[in-house]
Design a protein that fits this description.
mainly alpha; 3 helices
Length: about 50
């Protein structure tokens, strides 16, 4: 159980680092969840850049 918990925490930290560096595009579910945790709008956390 400890190994699972450690891996889960490590994965979460790596995801946060990738989000901060702009290397990860979160799913809508994750974006909404983070906005709820921080009590802000999704648009305040993430910026949409159309690369087309």
């Amino acid at each position: 159980m400890k190994l699972f918990t450690y891996c889960y925490i490590l994965y979460a930290l790596l995801t946060i680092i990738r989000l901060e560096k702009g290397q990860y595009n979160p799913s809508l579910k994750l974006a909404i969840g983070l906005a709820k945790v921080f009590e802000v709008r999704v648009e305040e956390l993430f910026e949409f850049i159309d690369e087309l």
